[in-house]
Design brief:
Mean pLDDT: 87
Low-confidence stretches: 207-211
Structural class: alpha/beta
CATH class of the largest domain: Alpha Beta
CATH superfamily of the largest domain: Endonuclease Chain A
Shape: globular
Strand content: 15-25%
Number of domains: 3
Number of helices: 18
Radius of gyration: 23 Å
Oligomer: single chain
Length: about 475
Protein backbone atom coordinates (compact mmCIF):
# COMPACT_ATOMS: atom_id res chain seq x y z
CA UNK A 1 0.00 0.00 0.00
CA UNK A 2 2.75 2.41 1.00
CA UNK A 3 4.78 1.49 -2.06
CA UNK A 4 1.76 2.09 -4.32
CA UNK A 5 1.10 5.49 -2.75
CA UNK A 6 4.77 6.46 -3.13
CA UNK A 7 4.80 5.41 -6.76
CA UNK A 8 1.59 7.35 -7.45
CA UNK A 9 2.95 10.52 -5.82
CA UNK A 10 6.24 10.17 -7.69
CA UNK A 11 4.42 9.79 -11.00
CA UNK A 12 2.22 12.80 -10.20
CA UNK A 13 5.29 14.89 -9.40
CA UNK A 14 7.02 13.83 -12.60
CA UNK A 15 3.95 14.63 -14.70
CA UNK A 16 3.51 18.00 -13.01
CA UNK A 17 7.19 18.75 -13.52
CA UNK A 18 6.95 17.78 -17.19
CA UNK A 19 3.93 19.98 -17.92
CA UNK A 20 5.39 22.92 -15.99
CA UNK A 21 8.62 22.43 -17.94
CA UNK A 22 6.62 22.84 -21.15
CA UNK A 23 5.14 26.04 -19.74
CA UNK A 24 8.62 27.27 -18.77
CA UNK A 25 9.81 26.77 -22.35
CA UNK A 26 6.86 28.81 -23.61
CA UNK A 27 7.10 31.77 -21.21
CA UNK A 28 10.77 32.05 -20.16
CA UNK A 29 12.43 35.41 -20.79
CA UNK A 30 15.66 33.90 -22.14
CA UNK A 31 16.79 30.55 -23.61
CA UNK A 32 19.06 30.09 -20.59
CA UNK A 33 16.13 30.53 -18.23
CA UNK A 34 14.02 28.09 -20.27
CA UNK A 35 16.75 25.43 -20.11
CA UNK A 36 17.37 25.94 -16.38
CA UNK A 37 13.70 25.72 -15.45
CA UNK A 38 12.85 22.79 -17.72
CA UNK A 39 15.82 20.70 -16.57
CA UNK A 40 15.14 21.48 -12.94
CA UNK A 41 11.42 20.72 -13.19
CA UNK A 42 12.02 17.36 -14.87
CA UNK A 43 15.05 16.21 -12.85
CA UNK A 44 14.21 17.71 -9.43
CA UNK A 45 10.42 18.24 -9.48
CA UNK A 46 10.00 18.19 -5.71
CA UNK A 47 12.33 21.18 -5.33
CA UNK A 48 11.72 22.97 -8.62
CA UNK A 49 7.88 22.95 -8.71
CA UNK A 50 7.35 25.21 -5.66
CA UNK A 51 10.14 27.50 -6.87
CA UNK A 52 8.54 27.76 -10.29
CA UNK A 53 5.12 28.53 -8.81
CA UNK A 54 6.67 31.50 -6.98
CA UNK A 55 9.32 32.72 -9.42
CA UNK A 56 8.49 31.21 -12.80
CA UNK A 57 6.10 33.70 -14.39
CA UNK A 58 7.75 36.28 -16.64
CA UNK A 59 4.75 38.52 -17.27
CA UNK A 60 2.05 39.74 -14.91
CA UNK A 61 -1.00 38.91 -17.02
CA UNK A 62 -3.38 39.42 -14.10
CA UNK A 63 -2.56 43.11 -13.94
CA UNK A 64 -3.00 43.54 -17.67
CA UNK A 65 -6.42 41.85 -17.60
CA UNK A 66 -7.48 43.91 -14.59
CA UNK A 67 -6.68 47.26 -16.19
CA UNK A 68 -8.33 46.36 -19.48
CA UNK A 69 -11.23 48.71 -19.03
CA UNK A 70 -14.40 48.11 -21.09
CA UNK A 71 -15.82 51.48 -19.97
CA UNK A 72 -12.78 53.35 -21.30
CA UNK A 73 -12.32 55.39 -18.11
CA UNK A 74 -8.58 54.75 -17.86
CA UNK A 75 -8.20 55.64 -21.52
CA UNK A 76 -10.22 58.79 -20.92
CA UNK A 77 -7.87 59.75 -18.09
CA UNK A 78 -4.86 59.26 -20.36
CA UNK A 79 -6.49 61.34 -23.10
CA UNK A 80 -7.35 64.08 -20.61
CA UNK A 81 -3.80 64.16 -19.31
CA UNK A 82 -2.41 64.19 -22.87
CA UNK A 83 -4.75 67.02 -23.84
CA UNK A 84 -3.80 69.01 -20.76
CA UNK A 85 -0.12 68.61 -21.59
CA UNK A 86 -0.45 69.43 -25.28
CA UNK A 87 0.60 73.06 -24.92
CA UNK A 88 3.82 72.18 -23.06
CA UNK A 89 4.53 68.72 -24.53
CA UNK A 90 8.00 68.44 -26.02
CA UNK A 91 10.41 65.68 -26.92
CA UNK A 92 13.44 67.67 -25.82
CA UNK A 93 16.66 67.43 -27.77
CA UNK A 94 19.67 65.22 -28.32
CA UNK A 95 20.11 62.10 -26.21
CA UNK A 96 17.10 62.93 -24.05
CA UNK A 97 14.92 63.65 -27.08
CA UNK A 98 15.38 60.18 -28.54
CA UNK A 99 14.59 58.53 -25.21
CA UNK A 100 11.56 60.78 -24.64
CA UNK A 101 10.11 59.98 -28.07
CA UNK A 102 10.56 56.27 -27.42
CA UNK A 103 9.03 56.56 -23.94
CA UNK A 104 5.98 58.40 -25.27
CA UNK A 105 5.39 55.82 -27.99
CA UNK A 106 5.43 53.02 -25.43
CA UNK A 107 3.42 54.67 -22.64
CA UNK A 108 1.43 57.44 -24.29
CA UNK A 109 2.81 59.89 -21.72
CA UNK A 110 4.71 62.84 -23.23
CA UNK A 111 7.63 64.78 -21.83
CA UNK A 112 6.56 68.25 -20.75
CA UNK A 113 8.44 71.49 -20.31
CA UNK A 114 7.84 74.15 -17.70
CA UNK A 115 8.72 72.17 -14.57
CA UNK A 116 10.43 73.23 -11.37
CA UNK A 117 12.57 70.59 -9.63
CA UNK A 118 14.15 70.23 -6.21
CA UNK A 119 16.73 67.53 -5.52
CA UNK A 120 16.21 66.04 -2.06
CA UNK A 121 19.33 64.44 -0.61
CA UNK A 122 18.25 62.50 2.47
CA UNK A 123 15.27 61.34 4.51
CA UNK A 124 15.09 64.47 6.64
CA UNK A 125 14.93 66.78 3.63
CA UNK A 126 12.60 64.50 1.70
CA UNK A 127 9.96 63.94 4.33
CA UNK A 128 10.02 67.54 5.46
CA UNK A 129 9.09 68.49 1.89
CA UNK A 130 6.54 65.65 1.60
CA UNK A 131 4.85 66.60 4.89
CA UNK A 132 4.70 70.26 3.84
CA UNK A 133 2.94 69.25 0.62
CA UNK A 134 0.51 67.01 2.55
CA UNK A 135 -0.28 69.86 4.96
CA UNK A 136 -1.00 72.23 2.05
CA UNK A 137 -3.17 69.77 0.08
CA UNK A 138 -6.70 71.03 -0.50
CA UNK A 139 -8.36 68.45 -2.73
CA UNK A 140 -6.50 65.16 -3.12
CA UNK A 141 -3.56 63.11 -1.84
CA UNK A 142 -2.45 60.01 -3.73
CA UNK A 143 0.35 58.26 -1.84
CA UNK A 144 2.19 55.10 -2.85
CA UNK A 145 5.23 53.37 -1.34
CA UNK A 146 6.81 49.96 -1.70
CA UNK A 147 7.53 49.86 2.05
CA UNK A 148 5.54 51.48 4.84
CA UNK A 149 6.42 50.64 8.43
CA UNK A 150 4.47 51.29 11.62
CA UNK A 151 7.39 53.07 13.26
CA UNK A 152 8.20 56.67 14.09
CA UNK A 153 8.18 57.86 10.48
CA UNK A 154 5.18 55.70 9.56
CA UNK A 155 3.18 57.13 12.45
CA UNK A 156 4.16 60.67 11.46
CA UNK A 157 2.92 60.02 7.91
CA UNK A 158 -0.35 58.55 9.22
CA UNK A 159 -0.92 61.59 11.46
CA UNK A 160 -0.41 64.04 8.57
CA UNK A 161 -2.63 62.10 6.18
CA UNK A 162 -5.31 61.66 8.84
CA UNK A 163 -5.33 65.40 9.47
CA UNK A 164 -5.66 66.05 5.74
CA UNK A 165 -8.64 63.69 5.55
CA UNK A 166 -10.24 65.49 8.51
CA UNK A 167 -10.18 68.78 6.62
CA UNK A 168 -11.88 67.19 3.61
CA UNK A 169 -8.99 66.12 1.39
CA UNK A 170 -9.62 62.93 -0.62
CA UNK A 171 -6.77 60.69 0.65
CA UNK A 172 -5.66 57.36 -0.83
CA UNK A 173 -2.68 55.29 0.29
CA UNK A 174 -1.30 52.28 -1.60
CA UNK A 175 1.48 49.98 -0.39
CA UNK A 176 3.01 46.75 -1.67
CA UNK A 177 1.91 43.68 0.29
CA UNK A 178 5.34 42.01 0.12
CA UNK A 179 7.44 45.11 0.73
CA UNK A 180 5.21 46.18 3.62
CA UNK A 181 4.80 42.71 5.12
CA UNK A 182 5.57 44.05 8.61
CA UNK A 183 3.00 46.86 8.43
CA UNK A 184 0.49 46.36 11.23
CA UNK A 185 -3.24 45.96 10.80
CA UNK A 186 -3.66 48.69 13.39
CA UNK A 187 -1.83 51.25 11.23
CA UNK A 188 -4.12 50.53 8.30
CA UNK A 189 -7.35 50.49 10.30
CA UNK A 190 -6.55 53.67 12.20
CA UNK A 191 -6.31 55.56 8.91
CA UNK A 192 -9.42 53.93 7.50
CA UNK A 193 -11.39 55.05 10.56
CA UNK A 194 -10.28 58.61 9.77
CA UNK A 195 -11.68 58.40 6.25
CA UNK A 196 -8.49 57.48 4.34
CA UNK A 197 -8.66 54.81 1.64
CA UNK A 198 -5.76 52.41 2.35
CA UNK A 199 -5.11 49.40 0.09
CA UNK A 200 -2.42 46.77 -0.46
CA UNK A 201 -1.04 45.89 -3.89
CA UNK A 202 -1.29 42.07 -4.01
CA UNK A 203 -0.06 40.07 -7.00
CA UNK A 204 -1.32 36.55 -6.26
CA UNK A 205 -5.08 36.98 -6.18
CA UNK A 206 -5.79 35.58 -9.66
CA UNK A 207 -6.95 31.98 -10.02
CA UNK A 208 -3.98 29.65 -10.43
CA UNK A 209 -1.50 32.29 -9.20
CA UNK A 210 -1.84 31.75 -5.46
CA UNK A 211 1.91 31.48 -4.94
CA UNK A 212 2.93 34.15 -7.44
CA UNK A 213 4.54 36.78 -5.20
CA UNK A 214 7.54 37.48 -7.41
CA UNK A 215 6.15 40.68 -8.95
CA UNK A 216 6.46 43.74 -6.73
CA UNK A 217 5.13 47.27 -6.90
CA UNK A 218 8.34 49.14 -6.17
CA UNK A 219 6.98 52.61 -6.99
CA UNK A 220 7.28 55.57 -4.63
CA UNK A 221 4.92 58.43 -5.43
CA UNK A 222 3.22 61.25 -3.56
CA UNK A 223 0.79 63.46 -5.50
CA UNK A 224 -0.65 66.47 -3.70
CA UNK A 225 -3.59 68.07 -5.55
CA UNK A 226 -2.00 66.69 -8.75
CA UNK A 227 0.21 69.79 -8.65
CA UNK A 228 3.19 68.60 -6.60
CA UNK A 229 4.77 65.18 -7.14
CA UNK A 230 7.50 63.31 -5.31
CA UNK A 231 9.40 60.35 -6.79
CA UNK A 232 12.66 58.70 -5.83
CA UNK A 233 14.28 56.02 -3.73
CA UNK A 234 12.95 56.58 -0.21
CA UNK A 235 10.29 54.46 1.46
CA UNK A 236 8.50 55.09 4.76
CA UNK A 237 10.60 53.63 7.56
CA UNK A 238 12.98 54.83 10.25
CA UNK A 239 15.99 53.31 8.47
CA UNK A 240 15.42 55.80 5.63
CA UNK A 241 15.91 58.57 8.19
CA UNK A 242 19.25 57.11 9.28
CA UNK A 243 17.85 55.75 12.54
CA UNK A 244 18.75 52.09 12.01
CA UNK A 245 21.59 50.64 14.14
CA UNK A 246 22.22 48.12 11.37
CA UNK A 247 22.55 50.54 8.45
CA UNK A 248 23.63 53.75 10.15
CA UNK A 249 23.57 56.83 7.89
CA UNK A 250 21.20 56.22 4.97
CA UNK A 251 22.19 57.81 1.64
CA UNK A 252 19.24 58.28 -0.69
CA UNK A 253 17.83 60.71 -3.26
CA UNK A 254 14.29 61.89 -3.90
CA UNK A 255 12.80 64.52 -6.21
CA UNK A 256 10.05 67.13 -5.90
CA UNK A 257 8.35 68.17 -9.13
CA UNK A 258 6.05 71.14 -9.64
CA UNK A 259 4.59 71.92 -13.03
CA UNK A 260 2.82 70.17 -15.92
CA UNK A 261 4.67 66.85 -15.43
CA UNK A 262 2.80 66.23 -12.19
CA UNK A 263 -0.31 65.56 -14.25
CA UNK A 264 1.45 62.69 -16.04
CA UNK A 265 2.17 60.78 -12.85
CA UNK A 266 -1.55 60.39 -12.15
CA UNK A 267 -1.84 57.69 -14.79
CA UNK A 268 0.39 55.07 -13.15
CA UNK A 269 -1.33 55.54 -9.78
CA UNK A 270 -4.76 55.33 -11.37
CA UNK A 271 -3.86 52.04 -13.08
CA UNK A 272 -2.44 50.55 -9.88
CA UNK A 273 -5.46 51.71 -7.89
CA UNK A 274 -7.85 50.23 -10.44
CA UNK A 275 -6.01 46.90 -10.36
CA UNK A 276 -6.31 46.78 -6.57
CA UNK A 277 -9.83 48.16 -6.06
CA UNK A 278 -11.63 48.09 -9.41
CA UNK A 279 -12.31 51.81 -8.94
CA UNK A 280 -11.71 54.25 -11.79
CA UNK A 281 -9.95 57.42 -10.70
CA UNK A 282 -10.29 60.57 -12.74
CA UNK A 283 -8.61 63.94 -12.48
CA UNK A 284 -10.68 67.09 -12.41
CA UNK A 285 -7.68 69.38 -12.00
CA UNK A 286 -6.72 71.90 -14.61
CA UNK A 287 -3.27 71.45 -16.16
CA UNK A 288 -0.59 72.84 -13.88
CA UNK A 289 0.91 76.16 -14.89
CA UNK A 290 4.52 76.33 -15.98
CA UNK A 291 6.77 76.59 -12.93
CA UNK A 292 10.33 76.27 -14.20
CA UNK A 293 12.68 75.39 -17.08
CA UNK A 294 12.99 71.60 -16.75
CA UNK A 295 11.66 69.03 -19.23
CA UNK A 296 10.37 65.90 -17.47
CA UNK A 297 9.37 62.52 -18.88
CA UNK A 298 7.53 60.11 -16.54
CA UNK A 299 9.00 56.60 -16.71
CA UNK A 300 6.39 54.17 -15.39
CA UNK A 301 6.95 50.54 -16.25
CA UNK A 302 6.06 47.06 -15.11
CA UNK A 303 5.87 43.35 -15.93
CA UNK A 304 2.45 43.67 -17.58
CA UNK A 305 3.91 45.41 -20.63
CA UNK A 306 4.98 43.72 -23.84
CA UNK A 307 7.69 46.37 -24.17
CA UNK A 308 8.77 47.88 -20.86
CA UNK A 309 9.33 51.63 -20.79
CA UNK A 310 12.06 51.52 -18.15
CA UNK A 311 14.74 49.50 -20.01
CA UNK A 312 13.81 51.22 -23.27
CA UNK A 313 14.46 54.71 -21.86
CA UNK A 314 17.57 53.70 -19.91
CA UNK A 315 19.15 51.83 -22.81
CA UNK A 316 18.35 54.65 -25.23
CA UNK A 317 20.08 57.20 -23.01
CA UNK A 318 23.08 54.95 -22.32
CA UNK A 319 23.56 54.10 -25.98
CA UNK A 320 23.44 57.77 -27.02
CA UNK A 321 25.60 59.24 -24.25
CA UNK A 322 28.74 60.86 -25.63
CA UNK A 323 30.75 62.36 -22.73
CA UNK A 324 29.91 60.98 -19.30
CA UNK A 325 27.60 58.43 -17.77
CA UNK A 326 27.49 58.33 -13.98
CA UNK A 327 25.01 55.94 -12.34
CA UNK A 328 24.32 55.29 -8.65
CA UNK A 329 22.41 52.15 -7.67
CA UNK A 330 22.23 50.02 -4.51
CA UNK A 331 22.23 46.85 -6.63
CA UNK A 332 24.16 45.99 -9.77
CA UNK A 333 22.93 42.79 -11.41
CA UNK A 334 22.42 43.95 -15.01
CA UNK A 335 20.76 42.06 -17.82
CA UNK A 336 22.96 41.30 -20.83
CA UNK A 337 21.63 44.25 -22.92
CA UNK A 338 22.26 46.67 -20.05
CA UNK A 339 25.73 45.28 -19.35
CA UNK A 340 26.73 45.51 -22.99
CA UNK A 341 25.34 49.04 -23.28
CA UNK A 342 27.41 50.20 -20.30
CA UNK A 343 30.58 48.53 -21.57
CA UNK A 344 30.09 49.75 -25.13
CA UNK A 345 29.69 53.31 -23.83
CA UNK A 346 33.03 53.02 -22.02
CA UNK A 347 34.70 51.44 -25.06
CA UNK A 348 33.68 54.37 -27.26
CA UNK A 349 35.30 56.81 -24.81
CA UNK A 350 32.46 57.76 -22.47
CA UNK A 351 33.43 58.35 -18.83
CA UNK A 352 31.34 55.57 -17.28
CA UNK A 353 31.23 55.46 -13.47
CA UNK A 354 29.15 53.29 -11.18
CA UNK A 355 28.53 54.13 -7.53
CA UNK A 356 27.50 51.12 -5.44
CA UNK A 357 27.20 50.61 -1.67
CA UNK A 358 30.00 49.02 0.33
CA UNK A 359 27.42 47.69 2.78
CA UNK A 360 25.07 44.88 1.77
CA UNK A 361 21.41 44.87 2.75
CA UNK A 362 20.66 41.84 0.53
CA UNK A 363 23.47 39.32 0.24
CA UNK A 364 22.67 37.70 -3.12
CA UNK A 365 22.71 40.83 -5.32
CA UNK A 366 25.73 42.18 -3.42
CA UNK A 367 27.71 39.00 -4.15
CA UNK A 368 26.43 38.83 -7.75
CA UNK A 369 27.79 42.30 -8.54
CA UNK A 370 31.40 41.09 -8.25
CA UNK A 371 30.96 38.62 -11.12
CA UNK A 372 30.62 41.57 -13.53
CA UNK A 373 33.96 43.13 -12.54
CA UNK A 374 36.13 41.44 -15.20
CA UNK A 375 34.07 42.74 -18.14
CA UNK A 376 33.73 46.19 -16.56
CA UNK A 377 37.51 46.40 -16.11
CA UNK A 378 38.17 45.26 -19.67
CA UNK A 379 35.81 47.91 -21.05
CA UNK A 380 37.16 50.74 -18.90
CA UNK A 381 34.17 51.21 -16.59
CA UNK A 382 35.13 52.53 -13.14
CA UNK A 383 33.34 51.51 -9.92
CA UNK A 384 33.22 53.17 -6.53
CA UNK A 385 31.82 51.78 -3.25
CA UNK A 386 30.12 54.25 -0.91
CA UNK A 387 31.59 53.87 2.57
CA UNK A 388 29.50 55.53 5.34
CA UNK A 389 26.29 53.60 6.00
CA UNK A 390 24.07 52.25 3.24
CA UNK A 391 23.61 53.92 -0.16
CA UNK A 392 20.14 53.37 -1.66
CA UNK A 393 19.87 56.14 -4.28
CA UNK A 394 18.94 55.41 -7.90
CA UNK A 395 20.30 58.22 -10.07
CA UNK A 396 21.63 58.46 -13.63
CA UNK A 397 23.56 61.43 -15.05
CA UNK A 398 24.20 61.60 -18.80
CA UNK A 399 26.40 64.21 -20.48
CA UNK A 400 25.67 67.79 -19.37
CA UNK A 401 21.89 68.03 -19.41
CA UNK A 402 20.16 64.68 -18.77
CA UNK A 403 19.37 62.86 -15.52
CA UNK A 404 17.03 60.21 -14.13
CA UNK A 405 15.84 60.03 -10.52
CA UNK A 406 13.42 57.36 -9.35
CA UNK A 407 12.95 53.86 -7.97
CA UNK A 408 14.85 51.94 -10.68
CA UNK A 409 17.82 49.76 -9.72
CA UNK A 410 20.37 48.39 -12.18
CA UNK A 411 19.14 44.81 -11.89
CA UNK A 412 16.85 42.25 -13.50
CA UNK A 413 14.13 42.83 -10.94
CA UNK A 414 13.71 46.53 -11.69
CA UNK A 415 13.95 46.06 -15.45
CA UNK A 416 11.75 42.94 -15.75
CA UNK A 417 9.76 42.07 -12.62
CA UNK A 418 8.93 45.23 -10.67
CA UNK A 419 6.52 48.07 -11.24
CA UNK A 420 8.85 51.09 -11.21
CA UNK A 421 8.54 54.85 -11.45
CA UNK A 422 11.11 57.50 -12.30
CA UNK A 423 11.47 60.95 -13.82
CA UNK A 424 13.79 61.43 -16.79
CA UNK A 425 14.91 65.05 -16.93
CA UNK A 426 16.53 67.42 -19.40
CA UNK A 427 17.80 70.58 -17.75
CA UNK A 428 21.46 71.70 -17.61
CA UNK A 429 20.98 73.44 -14.25
CA UNK A 430 19.49 70.32 -12.68
CA UNK A 431 22.26 68.18 -14.19
CA UNK A 432 24.81 70.44 -12.47
CA UNK A 433 23.04 69.84 -9.14
CA UNK A 434 23.21 66.08 -9.71
CA UNK A 435 26.90 66.43 -10.62
CA UNK A 436 27.61 68.31 -7.38
CA UNK A 437 25.80 65.60 -5.42
CA UNK A 438 27.80 62.91 -7.22
CA UNK A 439 31.14 64.62 -6.54
CA UNK A 440 30.26 64.88 -2.84
CA UNK A 441 29.33 61.18 -2.76
CA UNK A 442 32.55 60.16 -4.52
CA UNK A 443 34.51 61.98 -1.81
CA UNK A 444 32.96 59.51 0.66
CA UNK A 445 33.60 56.49 -1.55
CA UNK A 446 36.51 54.21 -2.42
CA UNK A 447 37.33 53.22 -5.98
CA UNK A 448 37.19 49.48 -6.46
CA UNK A 449 39.93 47.22 -7.67
CA UNK A 450 38.08 45.50 -10.51
CA UNK A 451 40.42 42.55 -10.24
CA UNK A 452 38.87 41.76 -6.85
CA UNK A 453 36.73 38.93 -8.19
CA UNK A 454 39.42 37.15 -10.20
CA UNK A 455 41.97 37.60 -7.42
CA UNK A 456 39.58 36.56 -4.68
CA UNK A 457 39.67 33.26 -2.87
CA UNK A 458 38.07 30.20 -4.38
CA UNK A 459 35.36 30.29 -1.70
CA UNK A 460 34.56 33.94 -2.48
CA UNK A 461 34.38 33.37 -6.24
CA UNK A 462 32.21 30.30 -5.77
CA UNK A 463 29.78 32.22 -3.52
CA UNK A 464 29.56 35.02 -6.08
CA UNK A 465 28.94 32.62 -8.97
CA UNK A 466 26.28 30.69 -7.05
CA UNK A 467 24.55 33.96 -6.14
CA UNK A 468 24.66 35.06 -9.78
CA UNK A 469 22.78 31.92 -10.82
CA UNK A 470 19.73 33.42 -9.11
CA UNK A 471 20.28 36.89 -10.56
CA UNK A 472 17.04 37.02 -12.59
CA UNK A 473 15.00 36.55 -9.39
CA UNK A 474 16.96 38.61 -6.82
Amino acid sequence: MFATLTATLTLALELAGFFLALRAVLIARTPQSAVAWSVGLIVFPLLAIPLFLVFGESQFGGYLRAVEDPTGALGDLLKKVQAGAKRVATSGAGTFGEAASLGQRLSGLPATGGNNLKLLLDGEETFQAVFEAIDKAERSLWIQFFIIRDDRLGKALADRVGEAAARGVDCRVLFDQVGSKTLTHGWVESLRRRGVRVEAFITNRQFGRRFQINFRNHRKLVLADARTAFVGGLNVGDEYMGRSPRFGPWRDTHLRIEGPATQMFQVSFAEDWHYVTGEMLTSDHEPAVEAGPAIVLPVASGPAEAWSVCPAVYLSIIQNTRERLWIASPYFVPSSPLMYALCHAALRGVDVRLLLPQMADHTLPWLSSFTFYPKLRAAGVRVWRYQPGFMHQKVLLSDRDTAIVGSVNLDYRSFMLNFELAAAIQDPAFARMVEQMWVADLAKSREEDLGAFENGSLAFRLKCRLAALMSPEQ
